[in-house]
Queue: 4 jobs
Job 1
Amino acid sequence: MRAHRIAFVALAVGLVAAGCGGKQTNNSADQPASGEKVSCEASAGRITIATGNTGGVYYTLGGGLAQLISDNTPLKASAAETGASVQNIQQLVAGDYDVAFALADSAADAVNGKDSFEGKPQDIAALARIYPNYTQVVVRADSGIDSVADMKGKSISTGSPKSGTEVIANRLLKAAGVSDVSAQRLALRPTVDQMKSGQIDGLFWSGGLPTPELTDLFTSLGDDVKFVDITDLLDDLKKINPVYEKGTLPAETYSLPSDVPTIVVPNLLLVNKDFPAGNACAITKLIFDKKDDLVQVHKAASALDRTKAKDTAPVKLHPGAAQALDAG
């Protein structure tokens, strides 16, 4: 079983690498009339999946999803490393990708035409609500930072440009009244490298559990780094978007001395509104029917819950995905 898991993950990551930089097309166009059911079968074609930073769960799980689709449907799927949520949505709408991972707050901004999408509502739909992202704020123990407010004048990685992490980081900093942080807009791998070398004082990261790069950070630095409790800012974030919720980062995730209270945000799997209904139905059904295969790729997939999958508001559920979830 261990050998099977290693092989599956290796192949999944290979599919991510293969997808980088290439736009694929899906030639099917089956759209049902209102209330009409479609055949829940994928058509032959190629699709690409927009994921996120190397070392993040989007990247790993996206490769696994591409493998799952390719192995079980006539579709050939590949996955690409990206800057994550905001960029994913922009490039999904532009037609560069067919399926995209995104945080629910960024997706809500997109359909409402707010913030990064100001005045430009995006025509996207959801295949499903998938697993939650945990807002993980880590600082060097000698930085003098015990809260987000303490980040004033410090060097902090706020995540990749146009990422969901950057959106949440900026909202937390604003809520804490911090306007003069030295923001380093870094992807996760260089963020961790600079934390190790002492070049930056802290980081924001929004991801599933565990995030391999943060496992590496805590394994390497141990007590020299620590988490910051950000839940005092939850009420301010909920005024911006009600999708933010209180959660707990379990101590065993990174071998911590105790659990860490934090803020969680659901993730959505997105497509364009005109994504073929048969493909939407087949992919959504596959995700939940083959959940155990995705858990082998990353245990964040263990949070996949068919009963919660339709909870994607304000993003509308794609009709094909709704059919798959209604069928149970």
Note: DSSP finds eleven helices and ten strands in the chain.
Job 2
Amino acid sequence: MAEKTKRDPDLKLLVNRHEPVRVDEKGRITLQKEIRDALGSDVVLVCDVSKVMRMYPAEVFNKIQTDAKRRFSDDNASANYYFTVIYSNARLAEVDSANRLSIPADLRKFGGFDVKEECVVIASGRDFMVMPRKAYDSYMESPVKFMAPQREDVEILRKKAFEEEEELRRLERLLAPGE
């Protein structure tokens, strides 16, 4: 018998897909097979202030988080605050054999995902998002306007983290002996 090999998903299939789904009584949504294949079975969910839940394959999320943290020193309080805001509600979730993704109760509550209500999974080939239908309608009306408040707040935190990092590095150079 031939051994099954895991195929990478065809991300072209996923570009600009908007899949309506319902949250079941147990707080799960059923993912389309192509989306499930792209995400894998271990998924990290992160709900942001605009009530959008982003989905990442666990290994991709870990790489994103590690690469982002690598840019800053441990002494950078602004960066630590920025990462707390960005990653504090990240949760590991599993996709079962029936392609159902369990959304933890705290993320359902924070993101406004009500049982039996429709939400929409958006796959853009790089990003995977889930949002309640009301938020989706607002997003479709104007994605830029929908995301603007979150972007502004996060950008302020990010900028402050980079400014503090620059100052820390300047101080390190001043205090470095014999250079």
Note: Residues 75 and 100 are 41 Å apart (CA to CA).
Job 3
Amino acid sequence: MSEGSMSEEVREVNFDGLVGPTHNYAGLAHGNVASMRHGGLTANPREAALQGLDKMKSLMEAGYAQGVLPPQQRPDLGALRDLGFTGDDASVLARAAQEAPQLLRAVCSASSMWTANAATVTPSADVSDGRVHFTAANLQSSFHRYLEPRTTARVLAAMFRDETHFAHHPVLPATPAFSDEGAANHTRLSGAHGEPGVHLFVYGRQAFGGQHGPTRYPARQTLEASQAIARQHGLSDAQTVFAQQNPEAIDAGVFHNDVIAVGNGPVLLYHDMAFRDEDATLDALRARMASPLIPVRVPSEAVSLEDAVSTYLFNSQLLSNPDGSMTLVVPGECQENETVWRTIQDLLLAGYNPISEVLVKDVKQSMRNGGGPACLRLRVALSSAERQALGGRVLLDEALHGDLTAWVERHYRDRLAPEDLADPQLVQESLTALDELTQLLGIGNVYSFQLE
């Protein structure tokens, strides 16, 4: 097959995470300003899930390929039992609520909804074996997310199960030296999605040797983790750029690179405080890319770091259209901020870059927990043969959207406060919902429980 025909048949599929039944505001993510600010408030899991499904449906109807990833089993009572809480479910929950409420909040977190952290993905166009490569993120920097990788790996293996087309690598060691937060710190830049690309890995700190890092909030991605993933996936030096995130940005609440930069095709939309060495990063990308890099720089004078974090302008989806233009999908908070909205109109639609349209989506339930549109999706470039090889019913269409909406309305609460997390009924509700979901999606038993 020629490179041209390969490019035409490859489509980027955005696999959005379904918001789980235990979606709540626990304020668990240190360094995530929105998460910390809203900790303790009452959440609406049903609204959160429906907002996510509405975003998926609108993009599907606009012609973009859309997939879904299931939520994880929560509350994770196995994790509490591993930590010494004994007895039946009700006893474990009650004791945890009394003795270690922070642990109870952690094992109830629905954070797997942010599938940008699920894994790092390399498409088949970039790898000599012609397969799509996956490494599930270890997420070791926070306990509530450390609970995810084992199930994430099972879910990905169930969906991308055909070994002819897909390769899965071990999760990196869950130690500070190999702290990995997945695609939230990884951007692939190329011409069309089916053309060979260059992989930009952004890290917050270097575990061995050390560089200047943030002082207020933790740097969650290490250089060593990014380098290990590149080796696992068989990427060469000519295909990779490793850039350090600006420590000042991390200390301002930019806990992942996708809060300060987003790339698609040859376009890199970024804040001028995104990288520690902006010029060196751009020069390295230009030297490696086959297509000319199109940098779209937003200066601090136009959008402050504070506004970038509060509106999640850069945690937006940047999507390719058949005519070569691009669409930017932003959260509603961008439209509500006059400065940011003016910047979008003046800078992004100015005509010197392919971004020609902006779509505004309401994902407030996710935003209050610190995740915008880009957090909610894992990008996977797939050829038509690779899409046909997917396991289960995971590509969104009208029928699946209808089934998932009805599933949410059957099983989800419209109110969940921190004190509700100790309710034993929530366990049964969640397990019943997930058991039905695995059958609906046709992905098999990816969870650890079995309903009687």
Note: Residues 424-441 form the longest helix (18 residues).
Job 4
Amino acid sequence: MKRALLLTGKPGTGKTALIKEALARTKVKGGGFYTEEIRTGGVRQGFRIVTIDGQEAMLAHVSISSPYQVSKYRVDTDSLNRVGVSALRRALKESDLIVIDEIGKMELLLPRFREAVTQAITSGKKVLGTIMLNPHPFADEIKRHPEVETLLVTRDNRTEVMRKVLDWLT
């Protein structure tokens, strides 16, 4: 069985929710982070990083100042490094499962993040995460890694993917 299981799919198919639910259902102790939308009045304004141990930081927002931009969002690479990359480095040392949600355009702007992802994939530990669906040189390289299995998540196959994730975790 491959050591890294990465979920991919279109936005809104429930990849992050699936990971959070799988972790809650198995009680596996992991480290790393996931991302959450920041919404105001039902409109997505940005994204935050939430570590498995409860730290939070803004990843991107429409109203922050940053030289880095993906779509309409400005990306806070300092927060990504301080909270996200630090959580991955802690997980590499302390956890049997490394959670990386997500390996996407915003996160891949930061070389330290790419280094931490590579270290996690080659660490020999289990990695559960999400990865962008669209082509990207680094993401495509990760998807082709011999230790990585990717599962496409759709609204129609969520139950089947959850079963596979739970089987893989136990």
Note: The chain has one domain: 4-169.
